[in-house]
Amino acid sequence: ALPEAARKVLWVTDRADYLDASPAIDVLRRQRPELMFLTPAQSDGFANRADLDRCVVGPGIAEAFRARPDDAADGPLAIATVHPLHGLDRLLDLWTERIHPQRFDAGLEVYSGSLARAEDDGRIPDDLRSIRRRLEEARTRGVTVRRPGPEAAMAAAYRAARVHLHPGGGDAFPWTLADSQACGLPAVSFPGGLVAAVLRNGETGYLVPDDDAFVNITLDLLTGGGAYRSLHESARARQGARTWDDAAAEVEARWA
């Protein structure tokens, strides 16, 4: 669209492997943009068959999530923000069969726009029908569906919970996990995707090897004891430091 542009940059915010296949690679070879990635792992995982220049500029955190009130959660609440088809079924299995039976007062809030719309009007895409039935059955185990809100509302939701449950994998960059970590919400996740670029294992949450570890650590965090407090404080300090102004300054310094 801008053939005379002196510099062209493609900001890659999702998985990059599709860029090495036709027709994307044909466009890249013709346009020759520099590729800007979010994390070193995302950049290193790209084969770069078009031999393009590339760099890494880490994302920032919005101000709503960087606020520093003394807001340790006071109830056994967990949150999940994963796409319904990217591992929510596994989280529901662990919650309904192993976590909630040991902590009857605990709740799990699942934030999903598509599932919330289905609750409002009763219409749901065919590929979500199975997970919707699972969620209906899970209501008796403390599971509720919530509609995602603006930044301030999501920040309040993150600060009210004690653990963010994540199945690993999914999108290239776990945006909601980065936001919740900045709010001080510890996370428990299986490895996969770029979760490790956000979650510092043992410091701001845990990357766990199996279901048993996932269940045991989640139960411990739901109690809100010393482990929760330590991870909570570390997550706020480490993940909330970088602003979008910081990211913009790096972009300007590179291409000004």
Protein model, in words:
- It is a single chain.
- This protein has helices spanning 24-31, 40-44, 63-66, 88-99, 113-121, 129-138, 151-160, 175-182, 211-222, 226-239, 244-255; strands spanning 9-12, 34-37, 54-56, 77-80, 107-111, 143-146, 163-166, 187-189, 205-207.
- It is of the alpha/beta class.
- The longest helix has 14 residues, at 226-239.
- The two termini are 21 Å apart.
- The chain contains eleven helices and nine strands.
- The mean pLDDT is 91.
List the SSEs and their pairings.
Elements: E1 9-12, H1 24-31, E2 34-37, H2 40-44, E3 54-56, H3 63-66, E4 77-80, H4 88-99, E5 107-111, H5 113-121, H6 129-138, E6 143-146, H7 151-160, E7 163-166, H8 175-182, E8 187-189, E9 205-207, H9 211-222, H10 226-239, H11 244-255
Parallel strand pairs: 1-2, 2-3, 4-5, 4-7, 5-6, 7-8, 8-9
Helix pairs in contact: 4-6, 4-9, 8-10
Number of strands: 9
How many DSSP H or I helices? 11
Low-confidence stretches: none
Spatial separation of the terminal alpha carbons: 21 Å
Biggest sheet strand order reads 6-5-4-7-8-9
Task: Please identify the structural class as seen in this structure.
Answer: alpha/beta
Order of helices and strands: EHEHEHEHEHHEHEHEEHHH
Shape: globular
Helix content: 40-55%
State the main characteristics.
256 residues; alpha/beta; six-stranded parallel β-sheet; three-stranded parallel β-sheet; 11 helices; globular
